[in-house]
Amino acid sequence: MKSNPKIGLAFSGGGIRGIAHLGVIKALDEYGIKADQVSGSSAGAIAGAMYCNGYTAEEIYEAIIKTNYFKFMRPAISWTGILKMDTVVELFNKYFPVDDFSALKIPLTVAATDIKRGKVVYFSKGPLIKPVMASSCIPGMFDPIEIDGRYYVDGGVLNNMPVEPHDGVCDVIIGVNCNHLPEEHNIKNIKNLIERTVIMSMNYNVYSRKNKCDFFIEPQGLAKYGVFDIKKSKDIFEAGYKATCEYIESNPEFRSLGKSEQKVEVK
């Protein structure tokens, strides 16, 4: 491996489970492992954008917890969704005062799904906020996001861990999945069945790209948390942090990517 390898970091989507990415970021920072470029879908796009703009894991966490995300949304009188994301722009403007990918401190690519053409589109240049909104636009819940005459929904529909922007460009690719699904012996109701089926589909989407990753971090059991289970945010953050510290400690080659020689205590 090169002495100064170029590192690409890919974050999956997963709703509130994406807070695990912040725990991952905290651990990587403590070990001195710095991404040269980042990609993400859905919650991973939001976490990635905040990280690339220079916010620490703790600052991103506080922003998410203190902000009532849904108060920025209004009902959509439309067959395409039940909520509109238009007013979320106000929220994003607060954290991204310069609405352009070029203003980020670390290069970022976000994945969104062109709903009419049925294909993944990667955004890495030009206006930032609308592509991040499009990448996290859950189909059926939010109206699709219009960008240059085309309509986009959640990037996780077709690519829930976009490693492709790093493939052939970076020396090392780190993939992070926040949707690990534990074995379940008792499906209690239709809600559990639907949620489990959706997560299985998302994970198949992720695992098909796992072999492109040099390192793959997947905090265990996060799929037990609901997409909007904000009350469990601290547990999710800690799960991401602990899993990453343990993974780094057990992988000397991964740890060698860092500039810090300190051993992080995992509680």
TrEMBL record:
Domain PNPLA: 9-167
Domain of life of the source: Bacteria
Keywords: Hydrolase, Lipid degradation, Lipid metabolism
Pfam family, one: Patatin
Protein name: NTE family protein
Gene Ontology terms, MF aspect: hydrolase activity
Motif segment (GXSXG): 40-44
Motif (DGA/G): 154-156
Active site: 42 (nucleophile), 154 (proton acceptor)
Span(s) of short sequence motif GXGXXG: 13-18
Organism: Belliella buryatensis
